[in-house]
Amino acid sequence: MKAKAARLHAANDIRIDEFELPAIKDDEILVKIVCDSVCMSTYKMAILGTDHKRVHADVAEHPAILGHEMAGDIVEVGAKYQDKYKPGMKFTIQPAINYKGSMDSPGYSYEFCGGDATYCIIPAEVFEVDCFLEYKGEGYFDASLAEPLSCSIGAVNAMYHTKMGVYTHDMGIKAGGKMAIVAGAGPMGLGAITYVLNRDVNPAMLVVTDINDDRLARAAELFPPEEYAKRGIDLRFVNTKDMEDPVAELRAMTDGKGFDDVLCYAPIPAVYEQSNAILGRDGCLNFFAGPTDTQLKGATNLYDIHYNSTHIMGTTGGNTNDMIESLDLTAAGRIKPSVMVTHIGGLNVVPETVLNLPKIPGGKKLIYTHLDMPLTALTDLRSVGETTGDSRYTALADLVDAHDGLWNVEAEQYLLANFVGE
């Protein structure tokens, strides 16, 4: 069947291609993609090309479909899985399949599998490692965002603490401890915040830093500190840009003891060094932000590692259990993946959006692959409707406003009923 997709042909070369999908094999499934959210990792893939660890060397001859944060419907099931999956089922996948030690991953490494497509083929290895997940919720976007949320869930679950003289690790953040998310008011940081605040084990203090007042103000609107104070969580949003001594001022918030857990969300040496410097005894720092510079370095306090038992680590992606946790918490209404979304658009805008992603303000860009639609900020929907005279944008704006400015199931359903097919 015919499919359209945004595919990588070389570094900085993304094209919207129309091509014929091959017939599926007995151990494959044909799916219709409804939406895919754009990840900064896709930008890194696009600018690096074959220098990226997940991009295959012959991408020029076999271009790779972009997008690994996908959700959609099953169209056709190979013979091997017809007892387990049925056409019409909603799905998402955990793209970090780690199949037989390979870095290959949907959205990076496959000619016929990726989220920025109208249709694609899920290969056998995804099923072999149980990374194909049925989704029973309403909003496709929630399923799409389960993958980026699983990355933050994995980051939190991978952190650890120790006891002197005991050679085992206590996994996860410290219950009732002090936690900081540095450079944390961007889309991935917001995902981490909604998870940290609403999981079973919470810190007593969560400090979120950034250098952008608009991002911090939006974060404070989404997570009102006064509401979390009622639950015993001291939540603070702090701009470190104008602080004379950010490390001293952040440590002062902990009475000089430092933080038990720190997530670093910017691949910048100075931000890493600040994150390292605010650790307390037995503090754990997860350098979450993925750099493109293979020689990126930052100064580390080795004295603290030795005498104060500080821990420096990093994670990339989550696993299937993290993904399932994300879907379960979303279905239960405990977390809101939609806090990450600031823009919507059609498949046509993927090349420009991906290649310019660091320059586009806001959070997650949500792509509906069966649409031709300009990339549009949720805050601009009403003005677009007024300027163009297109009442559909105004209707979307009304639905977004009715949900405190967040993308939502009703808005998605309206979009799919009234925009698709143009």
Tags for this model:
Quinone Oxidoreductase, Chain A, domain 1, eight-stranded mixed β-sheet, 14 helices, 2 domains, six-stranded parallel β-sheet, Rossmann fold
In short:
Helices cover 31% and strands 25% of the residues. It has 14 helices and 19 strands.
The top-level CATH class of the largest domain is Alpha Beta
Give the full name of the CATH homologous superfamily of the largest domain: Medium-chain alcohol dehydrogenases, catalytic domain
Span from first to last CA? 20 Å
Number of structural units classed as domains: 2
Contiguous helical run count? 14
Overall, the morphology is: globular
Task: Give a count of the beta strands, DSSP E runs of length 2 or more.
Answer: 19
Strand content: 25-35%
Q: Which fold name corresponds to the CATH topology of the largest domain?
A: Quinone Oxidoreductase, Chain A, domain 1
Q: Which structural class do you get from the secondary structure elements?
A: alpha/beta
- Runs in which pLDDT lies below 50 for 5 or more consecutive residues are none
User: Would you identify the CATH architecture of the largest domain?
Assistant: Alpha-Beta Complex
Radius of gyration: 22 Å
Mean pLDDT: 95
Relative helix content? 25-40%
Largest sheet: 8 strands, mixed
